[in-house]
Amino acid sequence: MQLKNKQLTDQRSKFLLLGSIIAILIAGTPFIFYLYEIFPDGPVWENSLFTYKSNYYENVMTAMWTYLGKIIPLHLLLVWFFTCKHWWYHVILVPVCMYSFQLIIAFYQDVYLNVNPMDTNQLIYLAPFFIIIISIVYLIRIKIFDKIYGIDLSEIEETNISVFSPVSNKDLEEMEELKKSESTEEDYYAKL
Predict the structure, then answer these.
(1) Domain of 102?
(2) Which terminus of the chain has fewer Cβ atoms in its 10 Å neighbourhood, N or C?
(3) Number of structural domains, the chain?
(4) Distances (CA, A) of 28 to 20, 65, 78, 100, 163
(5) Residues 140, 179: one domain?
(6) SS3 content of the chain, % helix, strand, coil (to 5)
(7) 125 with 188, same domain?
């Protein structure tokens, strides 16, 4: 009995620690964003480790403001993605991809001074990721609805029904009778 209580206490303390870390990460985002004010207001930032030269923005503070403006929403979206318990949480990867792409492009333009219009056509570059993510979410949705409503997808796959399949007269008459009968929408779709 005491061993079980000790395990529960240990598990609760782990959840409390993890929740506290997540809360601090979220609450600290304004402080992280305003870190751009500590960078020099000039084109070059020299320190003992490296030298950073802002070519595109011509100001290190402006470059850091731009980067942190992309990093903060990316950071919050990643926290949301890793803590979300809903079935649709994969959709959060769509804006994560978008902010990641924007951050990479902003850094590339500033360091290499290559003002390529990649950022203007970012939908073209991100569309494959969006399609894959949305497809995964839709497949998860189908599996969940299969479990909830007991729809057997293998039966649907075995029948040769398509959008272009002809509907028999008998089926059309049954559908008309269902429409005319006084029942709720749920009954109508259940009978259908």
Answers:
(1) 2-159
(2) N
(3) 2
(4) 12, 16, 15, 20, 53
(5) no
(6) 70, 5, 25
(7) no
CA 105 to chain centre: 20
pLDDT digits (tens, 9 = 90+) for 149-191: 766 656 555 555 555 556 667 776 777 776 676 666 666 566 6
Instruction: Indicate the burial class of 185 (C-beta count within 10 angstroms; 0-12, 13-18, 19 or more).
Output: exposed
Q: What is the DSSP string of 118-187?
A: TTTTHHHHHHHHHHHHHHHHHHHHHHHHHHHH---HHHHHHS---TTPPPPHHHHHHHHHHHHS---HHH
Asked if residue 98 lies in contact with residue 77, where contact means CB atoms within 8 angstroms, the answer is no
